[in-house]
Amino acid sequence: MKIYELGPAPSARRVSIFLAEKGIEVERQHIDIRGGENLSEDFKAKSLNGQIPVLELDDGTTICESVAICRYFDEAYPTEYSLFGNNALEKAQVEMWQRLVELRGLLVAMQAFRNISGIYQDRENCIAEWGEESRQRLIEFIPTLDKQLAVTPYIAGNNFSIADITTVILCDFIQNLEIQIDDSLPNLQRWYQHVSERPSIKA
């Protein structure tokens, strides 16, 4: 079993934190995204979306999309508490917040960064104005997280979950957009400081 990844990339980091929380070690292989290695036909044969991370099982089966990879490990290596929730309500709440943070937070942050920085302008059409619009939408979304954390210790409720993993990655990444988790977001700031001390995230 092997994971093809670029360690610091948000999607790959989500899988790494998830595996660390579960105490699972998997062989890793670096993929040079900036150099376009993920655009090669060999890599595309493994990854349906041409992106990292990709999990390759011993029988050659491959799984792309980081949350799908996390779901595989959650089912294949069950623990007392699932990072996707343990009962119907928990699972629904984790799914809800995971999707909210993913679609209104992390995805928007990536759109902002890629379009403002032009980091991949050699392979995609970068529109600076759309990047700035995405950045503003992100700024407007973040208080939603602060409001939620005023009533629950973690993003989706009483327990640490994959929604928290996605949120901490978002909070780390937005620094690239000069957005800070400051005193105007006291609940998010407290949560961020707390979860950042978890060994899985510090690693």
From TrEMBL:
PROSITE patterns for the chain: GST_CTER (PS50405), GST_NTER (PS50404)
Protein name: Glutathione S-transferase
Keyword match S-adenosyl-L-methionine: no
Pfam families: GST_C, GST_N_2
Single GO MF descriptor: transferase activity
Gene3D superfamilies: 1.20.1050.10, Glutaredoxin
Organism: Photobacterium chitinilyticum
PANTHER family named in the record: GLUTATHIONE S-TRANSFERASE GSTA, GLUTATHIONE S-TRANSFERASE-RELATED
GST N-terminal domain: residues covered: 1-81
Keywords on record: Transferase
The keyword Transferase is assigned to this record: yes
Highest taxon of source: Bacteria
Family annotation (InterPro entries): Glutathione-S-Trfase_C-like, Glutathione-S-Trfase_C_sf, Glutathione_S-Trfase, Glutathione_S-Trfase_N, GST_C, Gtt2-like_C, Gtt2-like_N, Thioredoxin-like_sf
Residue span, GST C-terminal domain: 87-203
CDD domains cross-referenced by the UniProt entry: GST_C_GTT2_like, GST_N_GTT2_like
